[in-house]
């Protein structure tokens, strides 16, 4: 069974037993979460889209806070002495899909 689910404004293609990194979610390690915003479900060759989808994706939080790679935004104007350096690390949550029901 395959599903496309919307999590924190992004779409993810998920299957039962799969673990993935999603934008940071509220909760602690071991908490159960449900995602009801399912956009598409494929089950044994049958596809359900839009309002015909009645499934809910259930998942468990494996790691509550994972930091991504460091991203540097550097601005510079030549011959002017202008240099500006900004950076950030995006926060993610690692979840494991338990079931699509």
Structure description:
Helices cover about 0% and strands about 70% of the residues. It is elongated. The mean pLDDT is about 95. The protein is built from no helices and 8 strands. It has one domain (about 1-65, about 90-100). With about 100 residues, the protein is mainly β. The strands form 2 sheets. The chain has a 4-stranded antiparallel sheet with strand order 2-1-5-6, with no helix packed on it. Strands 3-8-7-4 form a 4-stranded antiparallel sheet, with no helix packed on it.
| Count of domains | 1
- Helical content stands at under 10%
What is the number of beta strands?
A: 8
* Gross geometry: elongated
> How confident is the prediction overall: mean pLDDT?
96
List SSEs in N-to-C order: EEEEEEEE
| Secondary-structure-derived class | mainly beta
Distance between the termini: 10 Å
Radius of gyration: 19 Å
Strand content: over 45%
Which oligomeric form is depicted? single chain
Q: Give the helix tally.
A: 0
Unreliable spans are none
Report the major sheet: 4 strands, antiparallel
Widest beta sheet: strand line-up: 2-1-5-6
